[in-house]
Amino acid sequence: MMTAVMTSKSSAVLCFTLTLLSSLNALGANGVVAAIEQKYVITEVSANHDQITKDGTTMSLKCAGVYSLPTSGIVTTPPDNAVLDGRIKSPNMMVKYTLEGLGAHVLQTGDKVYITRIEDKSDTKGDVLKLSILTADALAVKGQDEQRKYSASLSFHFKKGYLGEVPPDEVEQVIEAVMAPDAGAEQAKSAAAPEAPPQPVAAAAALAPPAEPASEPAGPPPTITIGESSTQVLQAMGMPLQMIDLGKKKTFVYKNMKVIFANDKVTDVQ
C-alpha cells in the first residue's frame, strides 16, 4: 500500500516538474521572439501584399535557394524553406516540380526581402522559429505580363528547448547566416526621412519694432546774455513764435520767454 502511495506521489511530482519546465521553455522562447522582433522590425503590408503600409527592416539574403511564390496567386500559403545547421534544405524533386508549376521563383544571394511575421512553431520534435518574408521588389511572373512581389517562409529548426535556453543574440547569429539587415537600404531610409521643420519664430519677436538708434546726448541749453544782438539770439534760440517790432524796441516771443531788444541789443529777458 505504501509503495503505491509513493509511486503516485512521485508521478505527480514528475508531472508537475515537466509542466513547469515546459512553461519556462515557452516563456524563454517568447522572450527570444520579442527580442528578435525588436531587432528586425516587422514590415506591415496590405491584404494583397502589393503595398507596404509600414516600413520594416530590409534584409539581404546570404544564401541562395529560397523557394517563393507570387502573392495573390493560386496558392495562398507561401512555400516553407527549412533551415538546418545554418543551411537551407533543398526540397525533394516532387515538391520542386510542384512549385515550378505554380510559377516559383528561387531567391538568390543578395536579394532584398522584408520580414512580415515571426512565429514560434516549436513542437514535440524540436524548437522551430518561423520567419515569413516578402521580396522588396516586384518580380516578373512566369507566363504572365505582370510583376508581383513573392512570398516565402524560413523555418529555423533547433533541438528541443533550445529557444528557451540560449540568449537572443545567439539565435540572431543563426538567422544572419541566412539573411541579415541590409546596411545600404537602412542608410537610404534614414537619408530619405524628412527633416524636422524649423521651429516657428515667436510672434512677439516677429512683431517687435526695430530698436531705435540711441539718441545723442543733448547739449547744454541755449543761453541769452544781455547785450547780444538779435542775430545771435536767433542763432541760439531759433525763430520765435512771434516778433513784435516797435522801431528801436523789438520783442521776440518764445514758448516760455520773451526777449526784449533796444537798438538791436538784448536789454531784458522775461
What secondary-structure arrangement, pairings included, does this model have?
Blueprint: H1 2-39, E1 44-45, E2 52-54, E3 58-61, E4 66-70, E5 80-84, E6 87-88, H2 93-101, E7 105-107, E8 112-120, E9 127-135, E10 139-140, E11 147-148, E12 150-158, H3 162-165, H4 168-176, E13 179-181, H5 183-192, H6 203-207, H7 230-237, E14 242-246, E15 249-253, E16 258-262, E17 265-269
Helix pairs in contact: 1-4
The main pleated sheet reads as: 9 strands, mixed
Beta strands, count: 17
Cα-based radius of gyration, to the nearest Å: 47 Å
Return the structural class.
Answer: alpha+beta
Helix content: 25-40%
Strand content: 25-35%
Which residues form runs of ≥5 with pLDDT under 50? 1-6, 12-28
Helical run tally: 7
Please tell me the total number of domains: 2
Mean pLDDT value = 82
Order of helices and strands: HEEEEEEHEEEEEEHHEHHHEEEE
Straight-line N-to-C gap: 140 Å
Describe the global form: rod-shaped
